[in-house]
Amino acid sequence: MIMDNTETANIRLLQNVKEITDFDASELDVYARLTEAQLLNKDHPEKGLFIAESPKVIIRALDGGYEPVSVLVEKKQALEDAETIAVLERCANVPVYTAEFAVLTKLTGFKLTRGMLCVMKRRNLPGLREICAGCDRIAVLENVMNPTNVGAIFRSAAALHMDAVILTGGCSNPLYRRASRVSMGTVFQIPWTFVDRSVSWPKEGMHILRELGFKTAAMALKENSVSIADPKLAKEEKLAVILGTEGDGLLAETIAACDYTVMIPMSHGVDSLNVAAASAVAFWQLGMKNC
């Protein structure tokens, strides 16, 4: 039988992979037995890793310059899925582990999204001043702990004209597997960083933003709040949109230090939106200057 070029390429790729036969193999620890905190490796951040899930997310991480360490992929998908094959071609120099879907589910403890994981090296994060250089609109997340919310906010920020995202130390890491997957890989497309440990938040962090020329807008339901549709907001040359954690919202100290306290008008007796939903509304309304 004569195989077409695609089939030939698929078989060539599979010749370079290792099928899983031993669940206890040490090279699989990163997928099956290490926690997100262990991957982050706060004591030795230069050795930090993260796991990207699904071909689309992995491709965006590769496009963003992140270095792959190894790949875990469902065997059937490695033969048939075009995006998966594209990832394998770009990861030709790293170990690729494969197994049937049921085996992967047993190994990882969860069903994989489109049957593919990739371990990648973390990178050193830029400083607050560096990340804000040249930005007109930034999002600041204060203690947003839910990785699903973080991922959804990043997706909105990338789509709706934010130039960068700043996170305080209490936030979930954007490179956690769930966060990067929910973001559809936009965590690799929009610049972001954490407020450095040496910079206190909100006092010093807010001072730096003011030095950089940003007006600050706290998203909060307060008596002195202005509507998100207030034209003064859209006319600001530089604006930092600050969002707080689900439930507790922003710190009182943060709200007091902001130039604006901004609310999204509600109807039908609803008091507030989920922070991820609120971020989409805020970024859409405030993401572009109207001078």
TrEMBL record:
Record keywords, A-Z: Methyltransferase, Transferase
Gene3D superfamilies (UniProt xref): 3.30.1330.30, 3.40.1280.10
Domain tRNA/rRNA methyltransferase SpoU type: 138-283
One function term, GO molecular function aspect: RNA binding
Gene Ontology process terms (BP): methylation; RNA processing
Entry superkingdom: Bacteria
Protein name, entry field: RNA methyltransferase
